[in-house]
Amino acid sequence: MAGGDEGCRLYLITPPALEPRAFADTLARALDAGDVAALQLRLKAVEEDALRRAIDLLLPVAQSRGVAFLLNDRADLAVRHGCDGAHLGQEDGDHAAARKLLGPDRTLGITCHGSRHLAMEAGEAGADYVAFGAFFPTATKQAEHSATPDVLEWWTEMFELPAVAIGGINAENCAPLVRAGADFLAVVGAVWNHPEGPEAGVRAMNAAIAAA
Ligand SMILES: Cc1ncc(COP(=O)(O)OP(=O)(O)O)c(N)n1
Ligand SMILES: Cc1nc(C(=O)O)sc1CCOP(=O)(O)O
Ligand SMILES: [Mg+2]
Hints:
By secondary structure, the chain is an alpha/beta fold. The chain is built from nine helices and eight strands.
């Protein structure tokens, strides 16, 4: 999941709840609608068995299209199931241990809220990208932290490590984040809740990124 040289790219996160077999088709159509760098499977409310079934059904849909498949919260399952990486928050265990578990070839993403300090710690722990947010109000989760574009400007001037922006981002509000240097825009609602459907959501996000 390279960043920087390729300009800003879309990082898609799954809806909070899904039925994997039916969702596989929806996902395939969304990924075929335009450029998507990565897909994160984020299912917070399912048992491990169901999560593992969802990984096995959805991972091939992403990987067969050259889209990196990352797992939310679980570096251990990411390794066991052949995912391309894992995304961990500040409450999701030891980041350096996750780095070791994932090895050099899988991606480790770390949530840093709006904090320069957490971002530098994430870099030291071996993150492949740092994620800042929430930039805007979001209906997808109760976001307890916020971020402003200046943290993206600072980070991208100081460090090579890619920066992800997340939280309430859509085609109408994303331009300042792209201009501030975000390497990836991570979205849920802007794609899955787009009034004309997810494919239109992917197209709208890519058009907005290109126009920023
Ligand atoms: C790309 C990206 N950035 C941030 C998050 C949030 O992670 P976390 O703080 O662990 O919260 P949950 O997603 O686990 O609710 C993310 N998932 N992805
Ligand atoms: C999963 C997540 N993490 C956030 C953070 O701020 O760390 S905001 C968020 C939800 C992103 O969904 P939407 O694009 O619908 O706002
Ligand atoms: Mg988490």
